[in-house]
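Figure 3 (text version): structure tokens given as input.
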């Protein structure tokens, strides 16, 4: 069992037995109370007599448990009443009675407030002891003033080894200078910092082993001092699982590339020879034979595009280097790649003058914009000129610093029941009369998710669709 004393977490084993401490503390409190009672009888203090009794109650609250406080409050109340009965009325019965009533009020207000505070402290301590994570309370100088049992389980240090020590003991030597700077910066502007906060953090165990951790910081105030409640989670198991998933993804990606390469060789032969037959011998075939041959050529071309899209989507799921990129850059790069199709279709493409500063892999961001604009060029009503607008996405306050782009069109639109399905791989919202494999929007969403963002579509007022792609903002 443990107990909080003056902001520190202390084991009972470091003090005398609870029964002995209770008897000793009660005796001391009783002596002080009797001294005050003697003074009260010799000099009728009235309301002033209640002030020393408040000190007695406060003295009792320093002992373990609520019982000493109750005993002190009841005892001081009895002595206050006895002082009124045994001492002369002095200024008169009414003023003296009023003063004694105020003294009782002061005694019980102090006792109840103290008990309420103790109850809150006990609930806090119970929550701390039962927390599934390691918890430290650290002062402004970085000294550890409180721990819970999970700390010893994770780091190997006993409570006694950590109390009063600086938290640097749990920080790898190479990171202590930076940790000191960050700690002082946090105390200059304390605020709740959630788990992770975008940092790759390592902690040092007693045996010298380093472990990956996530840390949450919460500023708290106790005993008129500021502390930081530090919650630490050992994420070693999660990291191992992530590494295992990454390794399996790497193997899968390699398999896809090898398979794609091996399939493309015979596919090129089929596509090449069927095209030669179609161009040279088409007139020698009857209409049905020509139709069959055309289908072979189209199927070979479609299979090649499918293989290319499979390789593309495996590539976009690979983490890339992020940098600050003005939204204009990926937009302009995508439009340059599509310039021939834009000119051929007579599309009117308008780009907003102020696009956001994104933190993205520029190549992937360009790929996302390319697919969205390509989509808008394809899905246009027969005989109509594509009208496309590219603008900044304005997030709601709840989304925080999420930045992105929106591509608006006046095309055939997306039925609400298809709004989610079209972002699945090889799923299309239209028939096969429109060229495409159904991978484009799946690639867009994969790129967004790789950047902690999202991609979705909604109806555009007046007709058409609005396609959104967002990218999470990393500090």
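Below: residues designed for each position.
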């Amino acid at each position: 069992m443990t107990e909080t004393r003056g902001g520190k977490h202390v084991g009972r084993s470091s003090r005398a037995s609870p029964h002995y401490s209770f008897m000793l503390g009660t005796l001391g409190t009783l002596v002080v109370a009797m001294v005050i009672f003697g003074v009260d009888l010799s000099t009728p203090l009235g309301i002033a007599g209640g002030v020393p009794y408040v000190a007695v109650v406060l003295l009792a609250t320093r002992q373990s448990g609520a019982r000493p406080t109750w005993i002190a409050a009841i005892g001081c109340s009895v002595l206050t009443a006895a002082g009124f009965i045994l001492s002369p009325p002095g200024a008169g019965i009414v003023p003296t009675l009023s003063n004694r009533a105020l003294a009782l009020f002061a005694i019980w207000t102090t006792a109840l407030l103290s008990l309420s505070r103790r109850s809150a402290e006990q609930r806090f301590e119970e929550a701390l002891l039962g927390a599934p994570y390691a918890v430290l309370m650290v002062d402004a100088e970085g000294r550890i003033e409180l721990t819970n049992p999970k700390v010893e389980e994770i780091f190997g240090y006993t409570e006694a080894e950590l109390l009063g020590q600086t938290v640097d003991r749990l920080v790898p030597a190479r990171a202590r200078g930076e940790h000191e700077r960050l700690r002082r910066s946090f105390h200059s502007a304390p605020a709740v910092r959630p788990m992770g906060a975008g940092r790759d953090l390592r902690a040092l165990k007693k045996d010298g082993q380093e472990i990956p951790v996530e840390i949450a910081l919460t500023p708290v105030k106790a005993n008129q001092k500021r502390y930081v409640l530090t919650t630490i989670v050992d994420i070693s198991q999660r990291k191992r699982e992530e590494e295992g998933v990454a390794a399996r993804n790497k193997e899968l990606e390699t398999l896809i590339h090898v398979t794609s390469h091996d399939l493309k060789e015979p596919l090129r032969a089929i596509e090449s020879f069927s095209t030669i037959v179609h161009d040279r011998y088409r007139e020698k075939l009857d209409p049905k034979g020509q139709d069959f041959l055309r289908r072979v050529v189209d199927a070979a071309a479609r299979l090649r595009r499918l293989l290319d899209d499979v390789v593309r989507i495996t590539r976009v799921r690979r983490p890339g280097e992020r940098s600050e990129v003005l939204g204009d850059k990926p937009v302009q790069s995508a439009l340059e790649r599509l310039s021939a199709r834009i000119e051929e279709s007579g599309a009117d493409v308008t780009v907003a003058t102020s696009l956001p500063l994104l933190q993205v892999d520029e190549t992937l961001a360009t790929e996302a914009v390319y697919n969205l604009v390509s989509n808008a060029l394809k899905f246009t009503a027969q005989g109509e000129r594509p009208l496309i607008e590219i603008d900044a996405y304005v997030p709601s306050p709840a989304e925080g610093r999420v930045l992105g782009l929106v591509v608006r069109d006046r095309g055939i639109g997306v039925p609400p029941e298809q709004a989610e399905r079209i972002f699945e791989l090889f799923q299309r919202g239209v028939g096969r009369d429109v060229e495409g494999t159904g991978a484009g929007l799946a690639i867009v969403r994969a790129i967004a998710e790789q950047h902690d963002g999202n991609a979705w579509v909604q109806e555009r007022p007046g007709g058409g669709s609005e396609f959104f792609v967002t990218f999470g903002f990393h500090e």
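Residues 4 and 10 are 6 Å apart (CA to CA).
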